[in-house]
Amino acid sequence: MTNKKAQKSVDIAPAKNGGSGFYSDIVKEHFFHPKNFMEDDKAYKADGQGMVGSPACGDVMRVWIKVDKKSERVKDLKWKTFGCASAIAATSMMSVMVTEGEGMTLEEARKLRPQDITERLHGLPTRKIHCSVLGDKALRSAINDYYRKQGETDKIEIESGRIIDKVLKITDHDIEEAVLEGATNLEEVQSKTKVGTGDETCIPEVEQLIRFYREKFFGAE
User: Fold this and answer.
1) What CATH homologous superfamily does 160-221 map to?
2) Between the N and C ends of the chain, which has fewer C-beta atoms within 10 Å?
3) In angstroms, what CA-CA distances link 155 with 25, 107, 145?
4) Catalytic residue among 57, 163, 186, 203
């Protein structure tokens, strides 16, 4: 949740010697003035809603959407998250991207990825990139919920790959992509995906997958 305590985080303190700070100005704007934040979910008439994450690991993301049934465009999106400044800013930006103009179609919204959100934020610190991965997953979950409520179960899409972290819904495909992007060990894969922070029991399997993908793509031992 956004609150005064969160706004005092050292992550958003001004840099010394007149620097621009740890985050870009646009990240600070979306953190201090989040867009489309859900104020009262009980009064909100959502067409679909999704959630990903767990309070136990510190990040929970909820997304609510309203959809124009004729055009299948997202006409409104609200969200709530318990997380750091990066998670709040990334979700706020996601909500803007999905609803700006006429709104994205559900198909377009499904294709939104953390990299797209990070680019619009003018970047995030490397150790905070993982904070942008929850919003798009919660959005896709909300879209699936919409189709489920409409009785269009043939349009429901399950996250590709086999789920490794059952709390954060991280798949083997996510781990494969992290390795392809340069991650070489568990810490680096967690920095990109957060795998294992929600379900520590999956860590041995994650480490095995890292070794497998490194050998497969780079011939590493």
Assistant:
1) BFD-like [2Fe-2S]-binding domain (1.10.10.1100)
2) C
3) 39, 10, 10
4) 57
